Input
Amino acid sequence: MRGREVHLVAYPERGVSADDFRVVEVEVAAPGPNQVLVRNLWTSVDPGLRLRLAADAPPGYFPPFPLNQAMDGIVTVGEVVESNAAGFAPGDTVWHAAGWREYSVVEAGVPALNGLATLRVLDVSKVPPQAYVGPLGGMGLTAYMGLFEVAGLKQGDVVWVSAAAGAVGSLVAQFAKLNGNRVIGSAGSPEKVAFLLDELGLDAAFDYKERPVAEGLAAAAPEGIDVYFDSVGGEHLEAALGALRHGGRAALCGAISQYEADGPPRGPANLFQATSNELTLRGYRGSNFSDRIGEMQERVGAWLVAGDLVYRETVSEGLESTPLALVSMLAGETIGKTIVHLP
Ligand SMILES: NC(=O)c1ccc[n+]([C@@H]2O[C@H](COP(=O)([O-])OP(=O)(O)OC[C@H]3O[C@@H](n4cnc5c(N)ncnc54)[C@H](OP(=O)(O)O)[C@@H]3O)[C@@H](O)[C@H]2O)c1
Output
């Protein structure tokens, strides 16, 4: 049997482009002992992939994608077609990390993405399969642990969420609202700001492209903030340091403004605010909380099934659309979770 997969053919010099990838048709191997053959249905498109499209991915992060090979380490949901592994049967919906291809042969029990996408059967009785690429998967875990554990959300905290219309940010913002907090969101277009106010029900929102971030934040939170959820870094982090009240906390989840920046990355010029206001700035990776995924799925799954969470997706159709979906997501053209459907 033959199937198609996406290969990275060149590390982008500046902005990533669809020309850096090629769709290749290959022979799909038959599953060996303890392996399953999966027909993939939904594959993830994440900002973190951009960091791996470089020969020098940040030390400590997931390794660079090798050139001219299938791309391992991308969360994907599919259906088992053939199984030689105990606990997996044809028809089961599973997740794994052998993504951006139509068929994957996956070995059971081999840890993937720090345990976040180790081959596992998923319960799709109450949610659609692609929920596991979003709120019930790595996005949900990153949002849940970042807000409740890393930032240590407390009652009464005023929370600012950056990239709030995106996959992780839209979950963080809603989790904080469900917890009863005042939540401010920022995003990069009037359409996204309307989504934050009208659909997610945030208390305030601003478009960071309309004026300096610190000004937008000061107007939305004149009283200051206690928690900052950082997906952006740079000017956003600097604005947060200026607005965080004494004892405030920042969960440093990502720094997307720096992933494709020309020249040296921009650091906050006012880092001393962390000392003067006794702030806690904590970087973290969702995948390092894989042992808490059951807890997250129970709580977030209950919100999802009860209709308490708005879950938006931007869906591209077909394997060949994955590179452009990545380009479009990095450019801020998508809302909610960016995913690719493999028909
Ligand atoms: N630590 C972890 O374990 C972990 C796990 C998952 C994701 N992350 C990080 O979390 C962040 C969000 O990821 P996601 O999957 O939820 O992506 P996402 O928010 O769905 O998509 C990325 C968004 O970033 C915004 N953006 C792009 N360039 C920007 C810039 N120069 N300045 C400000 N905003 C910019 C865009 O929204 P606008 O239109 O609003 O600009 C874009 O829609 C990323 O930094 C990612 O690396 C970390």
